[in-house]
Structure formats: structure tokens, C-alpha cells
Design a protein that fits this description.
alpha/beta; Alpha/beta knot; 8 helices; 38% helix
Length: 237
Amino acid sequence: MSWAVSRAPSPVPERRWPEVDALEQLMEPRRVARVDHVLGQRLGSITAVFEDIFDPHNVSAGLRTCEGFGLQDVHVITSEDAYQMPTTITKSADQWLTTHRWQQTEACVANLVEQGFQIWVSDLEAEQPLSELPVEGPIALVIGNESTGVSPAIRAAAHQRYILPMAGMVQSYNLSVALAISLQQVVPQRRAQLGGGGDLSIARQWQLRRTWLEYGMRNAKQVRAAYEAKAARGEHG
């Protein structure tokens, strides 16, 4: 799924970091500002769960959708250790996300519930439309597989089960489309509650920022280490 969206110039945010990253000195200010702006919009309280999706292209398209909506964490449940996502579909979206991989549904659900997430399941057997559910607290949106939908384990653990109303003859939406429709309803409400921004802690934003600034720079880790070593010796430049 590909939507053409025009991007307004990223505003330069007020500096909020505990220190200066050495890599900033070697990058265009516009690139650094873009990273800072996106981090400030990132959501940790909304996540997506992909349960046993057969087609890796569907997961990849879903990850691209999650990144575009500003989610940071996604959960992929699969029994295949060597699962790979085609970068031609994600458009490298997966490098900006934190992907948590699980081999068992129960372990994934238990982890999310322990963190305080409500489990919301897109389920063809549900009767309540998503638009009627209150967006309160951390929410994990679960997308089931292409053949059987969500598993009995997920359905039993769900705090909310919802259906996306359809006016056509087909029974269901493509997985990434269903996810996009779900996020379009949930994310704006969460952002409104937050005053328009994101909710990652400064500490986590800083951790992600150090990784993101490395992308596209040759030997970034070594370059940063060399600059930090110079700073520790009191040298400059």
C-alpha cells in the first residue's frame, strides 16, 4: 500500500537532549532536525501485533504503515526463526521501528498485559465497530493471519474485539489496509490526549537517536567513539 503524502518542512525543535552527540557535527542540520522532530512525535502507548502472518509482504507493508503513523514498537509472532521482511516493501521502515519477535502468542500477550496494554483484536466475529471503543491507556492492536484470522488464544485474551464495517461484497480488508484503518481511528485520539505530540521518554528518545544518527554514515560507531575519546582527553575538532 502506497499513499503519496506531501511533507511540510520539519520545525526545529527546542533542544531536549542531555548531551551533544558527536555525529551531529558531521551531519546536515536539516537531517538532525528531522530525526529530532520524528522522535518527538513517536508513540509508545500504541503498538501493533502481527500474529502468524503467512505472507512476509503483508507484515512488511504493515510495518511501513506503523512507521508512517509514528508507532515505535511492533510485535511479530511467528514460529519461524529465520523470518525475513523484504526491504522493497518496507522501504527501510523496519530500521526505524523496534520489532519484538515472539514464538508463542501467550508469551507476547503476557508481556503486553504486564506493561499495561489493552489487547484490541480486529475480529470478523466481533460485532462492535472500532469507532465505538474509547481510546484510554496503552493499546495493542492485533492483526490475525490471512486464513483463519486471530487465534483462540488472542481472542480469549482480548480486552476488546472490534470489526471494521464494510459496505462492499468482500468479507475483509487486506491486512495492512485493516491496520491502517484501525490506526487512523486510534492514533489521532491518542495524539489529541497528548496535546499533539508523542509519548516516548527523553531517555528512550536519546537511545533511539544515537542509533538513528548512525544510519547512512559509514563506520558511524567508530567515528563516534573517536570523537568521544577526543572529548574525554579535552581535545576538540
